[in-house]
Request: fold
Amino acid sequence: MDQMGSPYLMAHGNGRPVEDATTSLLIDRTAVYHVWVRTYNWNAPWDSKLSPGVFRLLIENKQIGDILGTSPQWGWQYAGKIRLQKGKVQLALHDLTGFAGRCDAIVLSTDASLELPASGEELSVLRRQLSGTRRIVSKERYDLVVVGGGIGGLCTSIAAARLGLKTLMIQNRPVVGGNNSPEVSIGTLGGIRKEPYPEIGNVLAELGNIYKDYALTERIISAEKNLTVVYNQHVFAVDKQGEQIRTVVAKDVMTGEEYEYTGSFFSDCTGDGNLGYLADADYRMGRELRNEFNEDMAPEVNDNLTLGATVKWQAHQEDTLSSFPELPWAVKFTERTCQKVMGFVWYWETGFYKNQITDAEQIRDYWFRIIYGNWSYLKNNASFKSEYAKSALNNVSYILGKRESRRLMGDYILTQRDIIEQNTGYTDGAVVATYSIDQHFPHPENSVYFPREEFLSIQKHNDNPIGKVEKMVAGQNVNKPYLIPFRCLYSRNVPNMFMAGRNISVTRIALASTRVQGTIGMMGEVVAIGAFLCKKNGCQPKDIYKTYLPALKKALIEGIPSKNQRDFNPVDHL
Reply:
């Protein structure tokens, strides 16, 4: 939405055409109508002549024009014309391939010379005019508005509600959990409930791995009377009063309607730092140079390397033979380069040289070219293809699991030295982190065959040689525990905004440790405590450090009450 202006429908069938997408509309007068479809050939960045996701438009069961989905960028493709009678008509998008064909909008007009803006604000204005978008202003005023429903946002919201704050969580997906949701299904790493604050992590412990028991998460959310959750709403604008956020505006990705919400405090739990970006918060992206923070794990010269993103996928064995098409548009594999696997492995990672925000769609689409291309080779061309004769793809996620994007700056920036040297130069340590500095790099052999488009990675933990892990305990990469300062959890220039997630105030090297979901969940619980203390004392987040640090430490020892503690008084508790 932030890049091309809208959500869109995608025919995600893993090579099997999906059912028709249908809708209806009222035609106000009988006439000949010209039809345009906003669509995109997602393979165009690699080869615009090959279009994997093509479809047809049917109006009243009549095909309009030729194949759609061939536009080399997001834009309006003229479908054709049709004479329509006044009244209700049926429209259908008919998928032809099952390979991620996509459609944003359809425009019908009696004006054959109609000029439609390709993108930008002009398109946004036209969309509002033609669709009749409404702006709905909520009458509620929330103590805390949490933007983003991943692990950080979820733990922030539940904890804040338990502390008596009137809390709103805005999530732009139909489910919560972020990388731990059923859509992405990445397991939780990082120790929780550690000394000196063993009660921080209680909420995350209740939730467990969300994708394994989503019904439990729904029960936990519904039990919180102070918590309101809205789904499928994407925050795309803010209104500020001075430097502070006053309201956020979200668009419903299903209906297009816009909603405005007012709050006293806000928390950016978007992962990408979207709320902070909209509010002009200070932020960083990319790797700092070694001499900036005296981090010997940082590069000596500028580069644009980033931690990559992952798409999870799985195949399974069937009782009968199954087929999969040969794909001329997909990445080409050989006996040497193909991956003989039946699903995602942690080191499947790509986008090392891409912007993880503005290039997110292309990174995800490259995964489609890799996953489907590799699978096609295993099924059709490999010398050992008989081993895969009864194997079939059963799940390919269409949501990226990200590791890195924007980092919003607070009054303290956590560095490698703080983690490795156990720096005690700060007194506001609030989140106990245990995960090692886990950097990922393109796999050298993969770089030979897929230069700057690698999809396999190697890892380097702290000072260990690349590709080796010195110490593993129950799947957790263990580092001597260290404390993340409270000052990393609020913006230094947007006074009423907290943050919890991979977007907190750290260097890129420190991010390689703080980015895991166990640690992020505890950040959320600490943010909730900070918001509670701000309301209680009528202050801003930075005042907690300056004036109310003893109260914060006491609250961290007390932690967040469990779901079974329903008779507690938050004021007495903290």
In short: The two ends are 40 Å apart (CA to CA). The first strand starts at residue 9 and ends at 12.
